[in-house]
Amino acid sequence: MLAGAQKYRENRRMIYDFVKQNYDALEARLPKQSVRSLVRPAVALCDASLRSDAAGFFQTRMAKLPGGPRDYDQAMEQL
Asked: What does each C-alpha distance from 53 to 17, 24, 34, 43, 50 come to in angstroms?
């Protein structure tokens, strides 16, 4: 659902904010492999000014997921 909505630039900031506000609920409901993808809205924004915000929010959360550190590193590189 989130991936489809991110295709449209006008939705991207709203999706990023939604993920940040609802991360814990999303993490509880999604399979661990899918939780890793929650960092993607930050990348979709393509806004380097959000790098520190995204890094602060996702670094510790992604670190505890299988494959999360790699996905986090790739996302930060893309930003």
From this structure: 11, 17, 21, 12, 5
